[in-house]
Write a structure and sequence with these properties.
155 residues, globular
Length: 155
């Protein structure tokens, strides 16, 4: 089992104002249910906060500025640059993958709606949420998509 401190450090590496539970799942290669349980523990320990519920109905979490800065620092001291990069790249790949569902839902590609778990940590309910309102999902996830684009721009 992943210690909550490891998840906290991983989340510190993902520099976004707030995030849904699937980001925690993707960062640590966890199921969505396991990530949600660990996020609850992080909230109980006041290492992260519940930011609210977004317009898609998903709970959003955040690290306050100082806590996030410290989590990032601990991660960078504890892990190699390659490990830190892999955490960020895994989350960025997941945002890109989910954005492709939004693109498909907006008529970008003629493919059937996906119904299974497409990637590690992302349950079909997330994909269904995107298909229900892809424009709103893109708006809600704009900071995460910017994070992903920045990761890809770095090469």
């Amino acid at each position: 089992a992943l210690p909550i401190c490891d998840l906290w450090c991983r989340l510190g590496l993902v520099e976004v104002p707030d995030f849904p539970a699937w980001v925690a799942a993707a960062s640590a290669d966890l199921s969505l249910d396991a990530a949600e349980r660990l996020l609850d523990q992080l909230v109980d320990h006041r290492l992260i906060e519940v930011a609210g519920v977004d317009t898609m109905g998903a709970v959003r979490y955040r690290l306050n500025y100082l806590t996030g800065l410290y989590a990032r620092e601990v991660a960078r001291r504890q892990w190699s640059r390659a490990v830190c990069d892999e955490v960020c790249d895994r989350v960025a790949r997941q945002w890109r993958h989910l954005a492709s569902h939004a693109y498909q839902a907006l008529g970008g590609l003629d493919r059937p709606k996906p119904t299974d778990e497409s990637r590690v940590g992302v349950a079909s309910r997330i994909v269904r949420m995107i298909w229900a309102d892809p424009q709103e999902w893109l708006r809600v996830e704009r900071h995460g998509l910017q994070f992903a684009a920045t990761r890809y721009a770095r090469g």
